[in-house]
Amino acid sequence: MKKILFLLFGSLMVAACNTKTNPDTVVPAKDTLTYAYKATYSSDITVPGDPLNAQKVLQVWKMFETAKIQEMKPYFADSVKYDDAHGMHFYGPTEKLLAYAKSDIDGLDSMRFDIMAWQSAHVNDKNEDWVNIWSRERRYPKNGGKADTVLMQENWKIKNGKVVSFDQYLAKM
Questions:
Q1: Cβ atoms within 10 A of the Cβ of 56, count?
Q2: Which domains are present in the chain?
Q3: What are the helix (H) ranges across 33-173?
Q4: How many Cα atoms within 13 Å fall on the side-chain side of residue 150?
Q5: Can you list the alpha helix ranges (DSSP code H) found in 16-154?
Q6: Cβ distance 44 to 128 under 8 Å?
Q7: Predicted pLDDT of residue 86
Q8: Which element (helix H / strand E) includes 15?
Q9: 0.85 cut: is pTM over it?
Q10: Strand order of the sheet with strand 128-141?
Q11: How far, in Å, are 50, 65, 99, 139 from residue 163 at the CA level?
Q12: Which of 107, 100, 63, 104 has its CA nearest to residue 81?
């Protein structure tokens, strides 16, 4: 399902350009095409979604980048689900996720995100809000280790204004 979401949301950036506009309203073009596949998650998605969701998620990214881990707490629901690109699956209280994030950032001298694009989307048939981010991450480990750079894509699910889950995909440079 994650791979499908990754491909689906990536293709939405292209589909977002297929709209008719007038001075008052943005009306998505009606999709009347027949496709070779049926989406297992959804193909009924509105782009853009609520831009406030993207603003919140990007704020969480900035707090992580600058090691302000405890300041991230108000952005998360009480429990959160996280699947990282290395196969780690987390589901539990936000406090434990933030402790994990702190241990990760504490092992670094510094890090930097170069955000390439973000997108908010609303999955109509599931009434879900998502934020998708594409970036380059540069990590500089403590003790003079070798810097590492990866391409990263994450999908963040927002419910009632809070992050309830997110997943991550990486590609080595």
A1: 21
A2: 48-172 (3.10.450.50)
A3: 51-65, 94-106
A4: 14
A5: 51-65, 94-106
A6: no
A7: 93
A8: helix 2-15
A9: no
A10: 45-46, 108-123, 128-141, 148-159, 162-172, 76-83, 89-93
A11: 14, 18, 16, 24
A12: 100
Q: How far apart are CA 19 and CA 122, in angstroms?
A: 16
Assigned token pair, 16:
């977002």
pLDDT tens for residues 95-153? 999 999 999 999 999 999 999 999 999 999 999 999 999 999 999 999 878 899 999 99
Distance CA 119, CA 93 (A): 27
The count of other CB atoms within 10 Å of the CB of residue 125 is 11
What's the pLDDT at 10? 55
Q: What is the pLDDT of residue 132?
A: 98
User: What is the per-residue pLDDT across 18-54, written as a single tens digit (0 to 9) for each?
Assistant: 444 455 666 667 788 999 999 999 999 999 999 999 9
Q: How far is CA 50 from the centre of its chain?
A: 14
| CA 135 – CA 156 distance, rounded (Å) | 14
